[in-house]
Amino acid sequence: MTVSHFTIETQTAQDLDTIETMLDAAFGLDRRTRSSYRLREGEEPVEELSLVAREGDCLVGTVRFWPVIVGEGREALLLGPLAVHPDRRNCGIGVRLMETALDKARELGHALVILVGDEPYYRRVGFARVPDGRLVMPGPTDPDRMLYRELVPGALDGAEGLVLSPGRWRELDGGRLTAPRDTRPAREAAAAR
Ligand SMILES: CC(C)(COP(=O)(O)OP(=O)(O)OC[C@H]1O[C@@H](n2cnc3c(N)ncnc32)[C@H](O)[C@@H]1OP(=O)(O)O)[C@@H](O)C(=O)NCCC(=O)NCCS
């Protein structure tokens, strides 16, 4: 196992190009076509929760969180993207980045975090699968990868419906929206991709 002596710090403007290159390498150049990215369009990540891992001057990991609205007007955070340099994986950097950011998010008063990702990995930091049909992403999403973590107990209770960016929510006068209850089309569409 590789040993990494890394520190976790808040991202700076000088990190941005390196982060984008790392994310292109980790997720591919088509990453912006994913439904999570639709929620990020026109929005800024939460500055205090944009963390990097460094070894000396070298950036070896990145995590960011974006504000979203779930169900009928509930504020939440979308975790991601999360990536660790290929040479520094399996050193605990990904988990430490998330744990540090999630502790900070709770301190800042955030109650609910969602993400689209592999449950066997994210369960290490307390994420679980969103019950079928409760939250609907703006694009085909495998329901097995739709995960949540409550920072305040009960934060998901009663939340049901579309996940939207704050900007889109305002445009659509969100309170008047209702979400489809049947997730089968999303599941089939995701399987067909
Ligand atoms: C996923 C990723 C962020 C993990 O970062 P990392 O720093 O290597 O993770 P950690 O060291 O904290 O944890 C490593 C452990 O998680 C496991 N793990 C890593 N990715 C996993 C996945 N997708 N599913 C299940 N387990 C996973 C490893 O096997 C390892 O297990 P072990 O502790 O039993 O040996 C990194 O591999 C990465 O950047 N991947 C490409 C981008 C990506 O896929 N990001 C989102 C994941 S859905």
TrEMBL record:
Keyword terms of this UniProt record: Acyltransferase, Transferase
Pfam families the UniProt entry points to: Acetyltransf_1
N-acetyltransferase domain sequence ranges: 6-153
Record-level Gene Ontology MF annotations: acyltransferase activity, transferring groups other than amino-acyl groups
Regions of compositional bias (Basic and acidic residues) in chain numbering: 174-187
SUPFAM superfamilies xrefs: Acyl-CoA N-acyltransferases (Nat)
Residues covered by region (Disordered): 174-193
Keyword Zinc: no
Protein name, per record: N-acetyltransferase
UniProt source species: Kaustia mangrovi
